[in-house]
């Protein structure tokens, strides 16, 4: 069972901190099938509690996340920016993202300046508690309060650890909210990728730092658990 965007209540009910465009809605579908109560924070940043509330999240390479955001807005008519982005070239979208004269904050829903808010260091903002520039606080919060940081590009491995921690039933996976007709990241101009990474330096460092920890966790598995993991990945 899912409880959306409500205060965490007890340590028994974990909180999934959903950073947009990281595969969260696929997880929501999985969570809905569980008997446990799972908090999903879709529009809330990390918050520290005095009681030991446990968090988990999914990260995505920031360049891939930005590209996904652009094509998602163009494909989803109910998105607040759809009318303004639908016919906007990717380069123009990137220029809004790069414009440091636009304050990196949330504007009214249909304000085109929200491109910057939705693309620049968004993961750092969510994980630090609201500041897109406070990389160190984001790292501290992960280290102290998160049982798991998974990855969109290692989704099955991330679900494996999630299952190990919580013993949830992930017998089938229905991929949700996939943006069709978008190019793969290696089909995007390297200059565009570089421009995205330049303004997402905190998110890039956070992603690479957490990814190193994840790989270390993988390599430290004993032989039996590695076999379990391989079987888990192969079944999907």
TrEMBL record:
<dbReference type="Pfam" id="PF03567">
    <property type="entry name" value="Sulfotransfer_2"/>
</dbReference>
<dbReference type="InterPro" id="IPR053259">
    <property type="entry name" value="Golvesin-related_Golgi"/>
</dbReference>
<dbReference type="InterPro" id="IPR005331">
    <property type="entry name" value="Sulfotransferase"/>
</dbReference>
<protein>
    <submittedName>
        <fullName>Sulfotransferase family protein</fullName>
    </submittedName>
</protein>
<dbReference type="InterPro" id="IPR027417">
    <property type="entry name" value="P-loop_NTPase"/>
</dbReference>
<dbReference type="GO" id="GO:0016020">
    <property type="term" value="C:membrane"/>
</dbReference>
<dbReference type="GO" id="GO:0008146">
    <property type="term" value="F:sulfotransferase activity"/>
</dbReference>
<keyword id="KW-0808">Transferase</keyword>
């Amino acid at each position: 069972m899912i409880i959306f965007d409500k205060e965490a209540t007890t340590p028994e009910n974990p909180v999934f901190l959903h950073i947009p465009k990281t595969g969260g809605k696929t997880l929501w579908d999985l969570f809905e099938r569980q008997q446990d109560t799972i908090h999903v924070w879709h529009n809330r940043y990390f918050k520290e509690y005095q009681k030991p509330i446990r968090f988990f999240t999914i990260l995505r390479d920031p360049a891939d996340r930005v590209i996904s955001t652009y094509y998602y807005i163009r494909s989803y008519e109910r998105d607040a920016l759809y009318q303004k982005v639908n016919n906007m070239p990717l380069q123009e979208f990137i220029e809004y993202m790069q414009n440091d004269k636009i304050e990196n904050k949330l504007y009214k829903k249909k304000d085109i300046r929200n491109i910057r808010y939705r693309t620049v260091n968004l993961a750092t903002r969510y994980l630090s508690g609201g500041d897109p520039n406070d990389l160190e606080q984001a790292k501290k919060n992960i280290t102290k309060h998160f049982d798991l940081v998974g990855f969109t590009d290692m989704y099955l491995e991330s679900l494996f650890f999630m299952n190990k921690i919580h013993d949830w039933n992930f017998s089938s996976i229905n991929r949700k909210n996939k943006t069709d007709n978008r190019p793969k990241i290696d089909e995007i101009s390297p200059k565009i990728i570089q421009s995205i990474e330049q303004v997402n330096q905190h998110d890039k460092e956070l992603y690479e730092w957490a990814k190193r920890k994840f790989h270390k966790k993988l390599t430290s598995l004993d032989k039996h658990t590695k076999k379990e993991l391989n079987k888990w990945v192969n079944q999907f």
